[in-house]
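Write out this protein's structure.
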Amino acid sequence: MPILLKKPDKEVLRFPRLDTILMVEKFIKEHDGEYKKKELWQKLPKKMMYQTFCVIIDYLLYSGKVSVDSEGKIGWIFYPESVNERIKNKHLFWSSG
């Protein structure tokens, strides 16, 4: 289970809309591993409250779509297309017996 960036004792005041989540996802995909959390928030094409942005980042971390590297930069790691291609190649799996 990934470590969430949001403090659990704080109550969420604003929940993001789907179009806002998709905008953040698209921006992270396009700028994979370039920015730290605050820089990423500042560079987004549309402005939003920082708390709303934090809720989105926590959701993306929890769902396994993004990760944070040792420098604190956020990168996109969810590539279902490549997983489906690799599953077709049986020689990539360990034999069970």
